[in-house]
Write a structure and sequence with these properties.
- This protein has helices spanning 9-14, 16-28, 44-48, 52-65, 77-90, 95-107, 111-117, 138-144, 148-154, 178-181, 183-200, 210-222, 233-238, and strands spanning 2-5, 32-34, 71-74, 108-110, 130-134, 160-163, 204-207, 229-232.
- It has 246 residues and is of the alpha/beta class.
- The protein folds into 2 domains: 2-117, Rossmann fold (3-Layer(aba) Sandwich), CATH 3.40.50; 130-245, 3-Layer(aba) Sandwich (Rossmann fold), CATH 3.40.50.
- Helix 12 links the parallel strand 7 (204-207) and strand 8 (229-232).
- Helix 5 (77-90) packs across helix 8 and helix 7 (111-117) crosses helix 9.
- The longest helix has 18 residues, at 183-200.
Length: 246
């Protein structure tokens, strides 16, 4: 099974350990991991900002780079949602690419969804242990229905205690360019998220989108909380946690 890994530009630039962990998970599932080295952005920032031409150019680039795989797997509900939910409309005035967008969307999976519903992975080689809470990132939850998949994967870890956090489905305030346009509102929203997290009394917050991770982790540290870890689920499932892989 040839699986193309769309690692996302944020993971590539800010936390490559997530990409390395995703590769490890896919290889353990006996997938041949294909990684186009020229991949960059899915086009979502341009699309959200109204720059349709740039978004189209990036979408066409992604379609071309992943034209020869069985599946595309993305460790991000946000980028996954862009490809699966918005590419067809984005390329609607380019008939040739609209068909290709439909083809790609049907083969694109967020990482946890792929591990649960395509390869049915239920065994993980990780030393991670502790009490955790899971945050449901907006795009993954609302565009891709990512809810039970990560919890099912985490339930297979013998030394992990998953606690449900109040407001787990509520936005962290990041929202891409929203956090720039409406900084005060964004800051207040993430403060409320941190309140819920700290009330849960866990060792780590786990989630599936690096944008949300950076937003929440940054606010925790500015509040003086240097204890609670903020981790991508791929890092937890493999034990390749953050800076330990650098």
């Amino acid at each position: 099974m040839r699986v193309g890994l769309f690692v996302t530009c944020v993971v590539d630039l800010m936390r490559p350990s997530i990409g390395l962990a995703a590769v490890k998970l896919l290889e353990r599932a006996d997938c041949e991991v294909i990684f186009p080295e020229n991949q960059t952005c899915c086009g979502q920032p341009a699309y959200n900002a109204g720059d349709r031409l740039t978004a189209q150019q990036l979408a066409r680039k992604v379609i071309s780079e992943f034209a020869d795989v069985d599946y595309v797997v993305i460790p991000s509900g946000s980028c996954g949602g862009m490809i699966k939910t918005h590419y067809e409309e984005l390329l609607s005035d380019l008939p040739e690419y609209r068909v290709k967008a439909q083809w790609l969307a049907a083969r694109t999976y967020e990482l946890t969804d792929f591990l649960v519903n395509v390869v049915d992975m239920d065994s993980f080689d990780t030393t991670f242990q502790g009490a955790i809470a899971y945050h449901d990132s907006c795009a993954g939850l609302r565009e891709l229905n990512i809810k039970e998949q990560p919890r099912k994967l985490l339930s297979h870890l013998a030394h992990v205690d998953l606690k449900e956090m109040a407001g787990a489905e509520q936005c962290c305030g990041f929202g891409g360019t929203f956090s720039v346009k409406y900084g005060d509102i964004s800051s207040r929203i993430v403060d409320l998220k941190c309140d819920d997290l700290e009330a849960t009394e866990v060792d780590a917050l786990v989630l599936g989108d690096l944008g949300c991770m950076l937003n929440i982790e940054g606010k925790l540290r500015r509040r003086g909380n240097h204890k609670t870890k903020v981790l991508h689920i791929a890092e937890v499932l493999t034990g390749l946690v953050g800076e330990e892989t650098e």
